[in-house]
Fold this protein.
Amino acid sequence: MVAQDGRAGSYEEFVAARSATLFRTAYLLTGNRPDAEDLLQVALVKVYAGWSRVSRAASPEAYARRTLVNAFLSSRRPARFTRERLVHTLPDAVTHDADPDDRLVLWPLVDALPPRQRAVVVLRYYEGLSEREIADELRIAPGTVKSTCAAALRSLRQTMGERA
């Protein structure tokens, strides 16, 4: 990913090297493959648009991951304007085959967390980032990371206790 002269490689090299890792994060944030693909695409387009700046960053991967998480959180905010159109009749329901990963006991509980709590849990426990790194990624105070993580874990424990 880093050339011999110390500069970051091309955008194409970056995507080839890091897209699988970024997709995993997107999947863990969204909880399903189609939304993860869309989220990753949005983030990679933004990274491409700013590649001259991204390639000079200390960690282009961290920059891309922050872009991915920010895009996820932004997509979960209530929209002031929506292009959705209300209809009187619903289209036929589409059924999907069950994904083996959905059978995990813990993931549906994580998936049910509010977006910020889910982002903190994914970054902390799936990506292995420190509280400081998460705070930098989400542009929040480390104390907010701690309290958000504590609230998420409390919610997960409570839900798991109710199911037991």
Notes: The chain is about 65% helix and 0% strand. Residues 142-163 form the longest helix (22 residues). The two ends are 46 Å apart (CA to CA). Residues 1-7 have pLDDT under 50 and may be disordered.
